[in-house]
Design brief:
two-stranded antiparallel ribbon; globular
């Protein structure tokens, strides 16, 4: 399942640039690629990982994807970007106690509506090359974890956890500076 979800992340990163390069909007003007992309994103990021805490994940994810302001002008996500497939990956990888997993899901669902930024590693221009390099490292480590039945040991789990902290922290650190700029 996580191998398929990982492939979905790759497809999600490539489908937009490929559609623009091949001018699919001009070739098939009747169909909205943007809407189709949101449906696919909703399915892979929200619906598939929704099994453990289905109602919270599906409702907060649906509301997030319906939010017309889900991205900031500088291409960060506004609020937790409903990448529940990644949350599920980490919950399976780290195997926290059930109560901790439930709290994590509740916190992430709450963050979907919080006025905080989350990094979009491909679209945010600030440190883009570093973010992409870290994303590639994450993909290799995640693949190693999946191949090892999500029991890879600390040499994979610790770097994966540090990368998650990095991606979470980058956007959150950007949020206060935006509040200062908007107050001026």
């Amino acid at each position: 399942m996580f191998l398929c979800l990982g492939l979905a992340l790759i497809v999600d990163g490539l489908d937009g640039p490929l559609a623009r390069a091949f001018e699919v909007q001009k070739l098939l003007p009747r169909w909205s690629g943007d809407t189709l992309d949101l449906v696919v994103d909703f399915t892979t990021y929200v619906f598939v990982p929704a099994i453990p805490a289905g109602i919270v994940v599906v409702v907060s994810g649906a509301l997030y994807f319906a939010d017309r302001e889900m991205k900031t002008a500088d291409n960060y996500f506004r609020g937790f970007p409903a990448v529940w497939n990644l949350a599920a990956f980490y919950l399976y990888l780290l195997e926290p106690p059930g109560w901790a997993a439930a709290i994590a899901i509740a916190v992430l669902a709450g963050l979907s509506f919080a006025p905080v930024k989350f990094l979009h590693p491909l679209r945010v221009e600030h440190w883009r090359m570093l973010n992409i390099a870290i994303l590639i490292l994450w993909a290799m480590l995640a693949f190693a974890a999946v191949v090892q039945d999500l029991s890879p040991g600390p040499y994979v789990t610790v770097p994966l956890s540090l990368i998650a902290v990095y991606f979470l922290t980058v956007g959150l650190l950007q949020t206060p500076s935006d509040r200062v700029r908007s107050a001026v």
